[in-house]
Amino acid sequence: MINSENTSNPSGSNERAGAQTQMRKGVLELCILSILSKKDAYPTEIIEKLKDTKLVVVEGTLYPLLTRLKNTGLLAYRWEESTSGPPRKYYKLTEIGLQYLKELQLSWLELVDAVNKTIEKNN
């Protein structure tokens, strides 16, 4: 499991680790929007879903991204009482966010296809 917060690499290749970190951070927005397209979620749930896919993200990375996505109109939130602690802030995709997600998904598929073709040609 690679932590997107850690750029050190035990094999000694800091450059490779840095590239992996940048790629992971570049797709984090897509992953978060995809998670929220299925159902509203609070940050701890989002972190757990990302961990389940081996994309480790800490709160210090997630919260600023959620705030930015909210401020650009892609997300909205609501407060909901919790049975096990303080109220939770649940994030949801807005209509604009859903459209943006569809555009990101298309761009991602095109990028993956182009990268795969490039890799195949050079192997």
Any overview of this molecule?
- With 123 residues, the protein is an alpha+beta fold.
- The chain has a single domain, classed as Winged helix-like DNA-binding domain superfamily/Winged helix DNA-binding domain (Arc Repressor Mutant, subunit A, Orthogonal Bundle).
- Helix content is 61%, strand content 17%.
- It has four helices and four strands; from the N terminus they run βααβαββα.
- Strands 1-2 form a two-stranded parallel sheet.
- Helix 1 runs antiparallel to helix 4 (95-121).
- It is globular, with a radius of gyration of 17 Å.
- It starts with a strand and ends with a helix.
- Mean pLDDT is 88; it is low at 4-9.
Based on secondary structure, the structural category is: alpha+beta
Low-confidence segments, ≥5 residues, pLDDT <50? 4-9
Per CATH, the class reads Mainly Alpha
Q: How are the strands ordered across the major sheet?
A: 1-2
Tell how many strands the DSSP assignment holds.
4
Q: State the helical fraction.
A: 55-70%
The H-and-E topology, N to C, reads as EHHEHEEH
CATH-wise, what's the superfamily?
Winged helix-like DNA-binding domain superfamily/Winged helix DNA-binding domain
CATH architecture: Orthogonal Bundle
